[in-house]
Each structure stands twice: as structure tokens, then as C-alpha cells.
Amino acid sequence: MSENRIKYRHLQCFLEIVQQGSVIRAADVLSLTQPAVSKTLKELEEILDARLLERNKKGIELTKFGHLFLEHASTSLAALREGTEKVAEALQQRAHKLSIGVLPTVATSVLPSAVKHFRESDTTTRLHLSSGPNALLMSQLRVGELDLVVGRLGVPEAMAGLHFEHLYSEQIVFAVRPSHPLVNKPDFQLADICDYPILYPPQESITAPTVDAFLLSQDITNIKDRIDTVSDSFGKEFIRNNDAIWAISRGVVAREIESKELCELPIDTKETLSAVGLTTRSGPENIAALGQFIEAVKRVTASY
Question: How confident is the model at residue 3, as a pLDDT?
């Protein structure tokens, strides 16, 4: 099809010749030689199989076909320029915006301090922080909706085209309120947790397979009162006011455990240790602010 052979230079030369009313003046404006402009016009006419311009004593005059083509050529070139400008604007906005995906394990333990450190050196970049299931965040990262995901290592099938940098390892804890009957039970056994409501990570969450495998290895398969939730605000409030048990990444409740608002049951969960780190798209990223933010996260987690 002829339209597939028409290039930007063809439209540019044709419109400039019409605008200037002269091939010579058009060549000057375009910083090209006259023969180059004439050749480009000839190529366009051959592609269209129609004469677009006629030379006469007055200079250049549009033919019938030239008039027909002029309107659409002008519109096409204007649309192309507008599209180019829009892309440039979007890139400029992106240069001043950083989109970070945050998993619950770092939302309260790492991110607040990391953002504080980042802001000490960069106050012009607008941070956009969003949370959600690991699979969703990885998908958004892969298609460019996010620039970085901070949290646990995703499952292998979700990591295609992505790069993970390990920062530290974290385990699952079983958190309760300090007055929970199991906290000071002398002969506490893991099976005792089945007598209480358990807040559990939903199957689609990144920690569910880890909790499943741990409990199965301990022959715990009879949890009857189970509440699936990914809401850390609900989880904290619920176990503060009930004798429920929360199977959760330690980072989500680390602050509450340190302040003794909550405590963890004496359960050895070392086998649930999982990598926490930074996930980015594979290949180079030309975003200066991203590198600065990554360094801020590393600064916070250096002592973990």
C-alpha cells in the first residue's frame, strides 16, 4: 500500500514547498540542498502516482491532487508533532515521578525511614506508593506502571523479565496480644493454636505457601476457625481485642512487638525465612531518582 511508503520527510518537504511557494526557499528552511528537496518531492509523487505541484511564472501551484493531499498531509504532520510532544511531556513527568509497589512486610518497617532518607536529598520527585498482592505488583512492574517493588521475592513464574536484589531475610511469626492464654502456657504446643481463631494469608498472597508448608511439616492440618486477610490494619486491631492468632511476616508487626503492644508465640519458625528485597525490570533504567531511592532503602536495611 502506498501510504506505508510515505515517510515523514516526504510530508515535511511537500508542506514546506507549499508554505514557501518555492523549492529553493523550502530547501533553505529545511537546511537541505535544492536537488535533495526536488528528489523527495518526486519520490512522493511517484508513490502517489499523481502530480502534486506545477511550476509556472508565479512559482509553485498546487494541482487538483495537490489540493486533496495538502489537507490530509497537514493534519497528519500536526498529529505526529502533537504525539511527539505528548510523549516528551509524559517522559518529563515520569522523570519527576517514582512509582513504588510496597508489600505489607516493608510498608511499616522499611518504607517510612527510606522515604525520609530519600527526601533528604530529593524533594522534587513525587513518590507514588501503592500496595497489593505480589502477583499484581509484579505484573504492574513488568508493564512499566511501577518502577520498583519492595518486598518478598516473588514466585518463579512471576519473575520473568524482572531482577531481584536480596536485602535481608524474614520469617513468619504467630502474633497475639500480650494477655493471650498461650503466651505463658507452661506446656505450650504448636497444636494449641488450633483452639483459637487464626488470621491467615489468603491463598493468592506471597506468604500463603510458606505458612501452608510450615504447618504441614508440623502436622497441623485441622484449623477450623480461619480468617483469610491481607489487611494489616484489620489484623492488628483484631488481635488487640481478641484471643486470635495472626500468622504474618514479622516485619508487619515488628514495631508492635518491640513496643510490647503485641508479642509472638514461642514457635521456632526459622524454616519460614524468605528473601526480602528490591525487584526491578531487567536491563538498565535511566531514572536517576530510582537509584537514589534504592540507595535509601539499602541504607535503612543495612543493619537488618
Answer: 56
